[in-house]
Structures are given as C-alpha cells and as structure tokens.
Amino acid sequence: MGLTLAWDASGADIRVMAWLGDAKGFALRDHWWLSTVGHDGAKRLAVVIYLGLVWMAFRPMGFWRQMPRLQRIEIVVGITLSLMVVTAVKRVSLTSCPWELQAFGGIATYVSHWNWGVSDGGSGHCFPGGHASSAFAFLALSLPWLASTQPHERRTGQKLLAIILLMGLVLGAIQTLRGAHFPSHTAWTALVCAAVAWVNHLLFASYRSWSTRPS
Q1: I need a surface site. Which of 102, 181, 193, 210 has the fewest CB within 10 A?
Q2: Cβ contacts of residue 17 below 8 Å, gap of 6+?
Q3: For 108-136, what is each residue's pLDDT tens digit?
Q4: In terms of C-beta density within 10 A (0-12 exposed, 13-18 middle, 19 or more buried), how is residue 136 classed?
Q5: In order of start, what are the domains of the chain with their CATH numbers?
C-alpha cells in the first residue's frame, strides 16, 4: 500500500499516460488484440471460470471433492464479494478514464481519485479498475491452500497466487495501454480484492473454529 500511495503522490500516472497517448487519443485503444482478445475475450473467460467455481462449490468433481464444502463456498463468496466491492466503489467514484481527459482528446480535467465528490467533467465511474478485478478477484481462490498446514497444498496456493497476480497485472496493463485506466487503478484494485479476500477468509476461519468447538 505504501508504494501505491507514493505512486499516487508522485503524479506518475499522468506521465505514464502521456507516453502512451497524445491530444489525438491513444493509438492502441481499439487494437484488436487488446480490445477484442485482451479485454472482451478475457472478460468472458473470467465469467466461465467463475461459473465453473460456483458449480464446483456445490457439485464438486475430481480433486475439488477433497476440499471441504465450507472452503469451496468460502472461495466463491470471496470472489463474489471482491467483484461487488470493486463495482460498488466504481459506481460512486467520479473519476473518469484517461481517454476522457482533455490532454488526450476528451472533455474531462484531471482530478485525483482521492478527491471524492469532485467531478472532473467526464462520465466518471472509472476507479478502480474493473477489468483487472476479473483476475484479482480470484485471489480468494488461493487463500485456503495458502493457509493449509500441508506443504504441498501451500505450494499449490503459492502457484495460484502467482498466476492470479500475473494475470491481474496483464489485464491492468492492457487497459492502461488502451488509455482506459491509470496504472494506479490496477494497484488499488489488487489491494481492494486482497483485503476483501483476506477478511472473507478470516470470517470463514472463525466460523469453522466456532462450529467445531465441543458443545
């Protein structure tokens, strides 16, 4: 979080976007690989994976049967809550996307996303990064394995964590290249999803501890 706050304070967001765009906009905004594959395709894939996890939570197959039902539900709830929180913050945020700024051919003026309630003249609702949350929301998937007492399960959790973080960064980078989000939007999305996943995990762990106590 400290690094993200320092990045926000440095004004690096604007400098990065100035490297990628100009008064005519962002050259890669409608690039086929970025918009069709990296955005639309990745979004559909995330939906398929999410629905698959929901199905496995209640109709497990293969190695999913080895995981307790409550842990499977924890994963689905954690992912769902992460997506809901990011969506809720975006809904109340007045921060517009970079491609709406005057510097890049739009109508909005730059206003820090910390200036809550201050409109920048654009359409808003662009903070944090919704597309990056298509990956970062799955951080909840790694926690049951990371918290396991079994070394091989922890290794599985570490691999899942690495893959999810990498995919989140890739999806965030795609949107930055297109002019849709500042780099900080991706960082804050990761932090929000991580916080939601961790709190969700602690609540489920507390419930498991309470429900297994001798009466």
Answers
A1: 210
A2: 98, 101, 103, 104, 176, 179, 182
A3: 999 998 888 899 999 999 999 999 999 99
A4: buried
A5: 2-207 (1.20.144)
